[in-house]
Design brief:
FAD/NAD(P)-binding domain; seven-stranded mixed sheet; 17 helices; Polyamine Oxidase, Chain A, domain 2
Length: 498
């Protein structure tokens, strides 16, 4: 049987693409090597505790936001319940401690009160941010072809062009002088995986907009509820989903046009088009049968920077974390105002000084923990290089040592935490590489540098006719929101191709 489209990988991008296509009447086959959907964003259960493997919270899930709109249009919103978040995060620096509540005016007021000498500069900065948000919304909502939008951008959307030429640090320096103030404003840099001095200003502002300017929501019962609902909707539309099925080869027959895919079970499925949600490196440089095309992509990818990875500790507690002092669902804990220094702490494995993220999902949704109990996720950016060459014994020892260091650091804010742990799991960059099928455990795909962001980022279309890419490695980038958009765009491209 020939399908209209085969989607490889049931991560967020793959699910979005398959849902988009199946909702438009296309016959889709979605193939996933793991037993459940979600990819990096899946969940797992230990002794009654449900843990989000990577999601902290997802922007654009509130009513009127673009991911929610897509879920509304495809009928998924009727199948899940949303929990609106009352605020985004408690942000902690050596001399500052405050709550960001997804209201830009409140954030502005806090900053002006804390940095009175910068009042006028703060107003100028956020005036520019609001102008950027308006231009970006108009750009996104415009139904003009993308090439036309890009051509008119210097005149109609000038801030989009300007910010794509600056780093986040360069953008802020036009307005703000105080280094501590810059650090607080750019605290969200970890959601992109690069410090402000190297991070594209455009991508930084997009993420900033998602969390500081708009409310967001969480899926009741965990993100897996959402992904399972998407799978069911895909099936109801007449398409197929197969788990525990890994695609090993993408076949063109040297025609530079998609013919079929082959699985690890030796099955061959034919299709008019293929969308790969597998990382771009494996898709284009390993799975493809065209040697010339593979070699050209290998050469291209060898010079492209991959993003950083992460270390995470998952804790099941014998009481809700709020009783220990977790007064908000997310804590962002920083030991320095120098974001580049913080990033370097992660690169060299300085686990006592790197920034930490504490997330209490059970505070948002108590059903994720047994009654009367709680959970906690402790996360920090980390580099694969510190893990890849360890022996099995060295790996296990380091994994436990780092987990205990993070628990000890978290106890500064949650006294007595270590006495209330019932379940503990940890994930390293090696875990990200193995279960997330990500090169060197890169959690955001290619790094969001100026040369690898916006229109410079790997496109969805490839050199093979009918083969498209979705996920963190392609446009617009990493993160659940961005991966949704990549899948939707890849689906649109496949529709036009068909």
């Amino acid at each position: 049987m020939e399908y209209d489209v085969i989607v490889i990988g049931a991560g967020v991008g793959g699910l979005a693409a398959a849902l988009k296509l199946s909702s438009r009447g296309k016959k889709v086959l979605l193939l996933e090597k793991l037993p459940s959907p979600g990819g990096f964003a899946t969940t797992f259960t230990r002794k009654g505790f449900t843990f989000e493997s990577s999601i902290h919270c997802v922007d654009a899930l509130a009513e009127g936001q673009e991911v929610r709109d897509f879920l509304d249009e495809t009928g998924i919103s009727q199948e899940v319940d949303f929990i609106t978040l009352r605020d985004f995060s408690r942000i902690i620096y050596p001399g500052h401690d405050f709550v960001a509540d997804a209201n830009l005016d409140n954030f502005t007021a806090f900053l002006k009160e804390s940095f009175s000498l910068e009042k006028e500069n703060i107003d100028k900065l956020f005036m520019a941010v609001k102008k950027f948000n308006k231009q970006f919304d108009n750009f996104s909502l415009s139904e003009l072809p993308i090439l036309v939008k890009l051509l008119i951008s210097p005149f109609v959307y000038p801030l989009i062009i300007q910010t794509s030429c600056f780093t986040a640090e360069q953008f802020l320096e036009k307005y703000i002088k105080d280094d501590k103030l810059k650090a607080i404003i750019t605290d969200i840099w970890r959601f992109a995986g690069l410090p402000p001095s190297r991070l594209s200003a455009l991508y930084f502002l997009i993420i900033f907009k998602g969390y500081y300017c708009n409310p967001t929501a969480y899926i009741k019962g965990s993100s897996s509820r959402l992904f399972k609902a998407m799978v069911e909707k895909i099936k109801q539309s007449g398409s197929e989903v197969k788990f525990n099925t890994e695609v090993t080869d993408i076949i063109t027959g040297n025609s530079k046009k998609i013919k079929s895919v082959i699985t690890d079970k030796g099955e061959e499925f034919q299709a008019k088009a293929v969308i790969s949600n597998v990382n771009a490196v494996d898709t284009m440089a390993n799975m493809l049968d065209d040697q010339a095309v593979k070699e050209s992509y290998r050469k291209k990818f060898s010079s492209m920077e991959k993003s950083i990875s992460a270390f995470q500790v998952y804790l099941g507690l014998d009481l809700p974390a709020k009783y220990l002092g977790m007064d908000h669902p997310i804590f962002s804990v920083n030991t320095t105002y120098d974001q580049l220094e913080s990033y370097n702490y992660s690169l060299v494995g300085d686990y006592q000084r790197c920034s930490l993220e504490l997330v209490d999902h059970a505070q948002i949704d108590p059903g994720l923990a047994p009654q009367g109990k709680g959970s906690l996720l402790i996360m920090a950016l980390d580099d694969y290089a510190g893990w890849g060459n360890l022996t099995e014994e060295e790996y296990k020892k380091k994994k436990m040592e780092v987990a205990n260091q993070f628990i000890s650091r978290a106890e500064k804010y949650l006294p007595g935490l270590s006495k209330h742990i019932e379940v503990m799991e940890a994930a390293t960059p090696m875990t990200m590489s193995r279960f997330g099928s990500s090169v060197k455990g890169a959690i955001y795909g290619f790094a969001q540098t100026l040369g690898q962001s916006s229109i410079n980022r790997l496109p969805h279309e490839t050199k093979v006719k009918g083969l498209f890419l979705a996920g963190a490695w392609t446009q617009p980038g990493g993160g659940v929101h961005a991966c949704f958009l990549s899948g939707i765009e890849a689906g649109d491209l496949a529709l036009r191709y068909l």
